[in-house]
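Is this the right way to post structure tokens for a design question? Let me know if I should format differently. Anyway, here goes:
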């Protein structure tokens, strides 16, 4: 019977790199939006990544079995995954990348609520409920009293933020379906392939339906597509699934708050996006809430060791 390890230097280093990569992706989408729309870029990156995952499965002799009960939940997670990024792409037309990454990464909060309802083993403890309360309080605060940044595309920042929040809900729903269906026992590559195919089909159709299929092949666009296809949608997810198989998920989950933190820093640094005080004050409890929900067990163990050391 395999056991998960506590985090070592390798795992911590990989998690820091992954969080930086995931925090950067919204910034890169926004930076190249004039030459390729976010919805078109996500469609293309999903298609390329799906081909790469398919090649990995072929190399590993992992057949894509459709008769193992995963087809229906696989189609559902593909739809939800595509919906998530459809909301992200549309939201980036209205809000900043730093806002988007914070609202998108509220997903662990909504996933925890969904799993609490669906699976008895995923019941929330007092510390996790505290984290959820903090996160929702922070979300409410970020929507209050903010002025409109001057460099947004449409100025309707609140609408873009709301779409980012809905993207987090769609991501959470994907997690709940995976954990509570036959996909929970399926190979990670098969689940990822369902998601990528769903995103490719839905996003490509959405790009043409909304007149956002423009593609100006500048060097920056090619570099962005390579980053999103090879690094984000392919390599980072394979590394993440490898980490989940080897290390304790509760320890890895504590790093969740770093992704929106990286996203805000990159957005302010590379895109000169303003970070409003009221938004920052709301983002802090959101990130604390993510830590408490994702790594509540670890936080409790750490606090217990600290109290023991004090006595």
């Amino acid at each position: 019977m395999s056991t998960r390890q506590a985090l070592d230097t390798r795992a911590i280093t990989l998690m820091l790199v992954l969080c930086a990569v995931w925090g950067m992706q919204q910034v890169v989408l926004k930076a190249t939006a004039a030459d390729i729309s976010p919805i078109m870029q996500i469609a293309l990156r999903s298609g390329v990544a799906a081909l790469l995952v398919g090649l990995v499965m072929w190399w590993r002799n992992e057949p894509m079995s459709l008769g193992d009960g995963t087809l229906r939940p696989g189609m559902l997670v593909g739809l939800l995954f595509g919906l998530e990024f459809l909301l992200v792409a549309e939201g980036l037309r209205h809000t900043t990348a730093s806002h988007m990454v914070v609202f998108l990464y509220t997903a662990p909060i909504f996933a925890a609520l969904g799993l609490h309802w669906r699976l008895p083993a995923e019941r929330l403890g007092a510390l996790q409920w505290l984290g959820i309360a903090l996160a929702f309080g922070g979300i409410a605060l970020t929507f209050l009293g903010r002025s409109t940044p001057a460099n947004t595309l449409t100025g309707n920042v609140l609408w873009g933020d709301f779409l980012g929040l809905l993207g987090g809900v769609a991501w959470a729903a994907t997690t709940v379906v995976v954990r509570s269906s036959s996909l929970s026992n399926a190979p990670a590559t098969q689940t990822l392939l369902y998601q990528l195919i769903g995103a490719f089909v839905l996003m490509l159709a959405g790009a043409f339906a909304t007149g956002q299929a423009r593609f100006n092949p500048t060097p920056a666009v090619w570099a962005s597509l390579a980053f999103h296809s090879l690094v984000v949608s392919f390599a980072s997810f394979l590394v993440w699934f490898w980490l989940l198989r080897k290390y304790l998920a509760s320890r890895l989950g504590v790093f969740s708050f770093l992704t929106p933190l990286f996203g805000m820093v990159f957005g302010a640094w590379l895109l000169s996006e303003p970070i409003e005080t009221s938004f920052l004050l709301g983002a802090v409890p959101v990130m604390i809430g993510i830590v408490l929900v994702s790594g509540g067990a670890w936080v409790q163990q750490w606090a217990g060791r600290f109290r023991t050391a004090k006595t």
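Format looks fine. Someone answered above. Worth noting: The two ends are 37 Å apart (CA to CA). The chain has one domain: 9-310.
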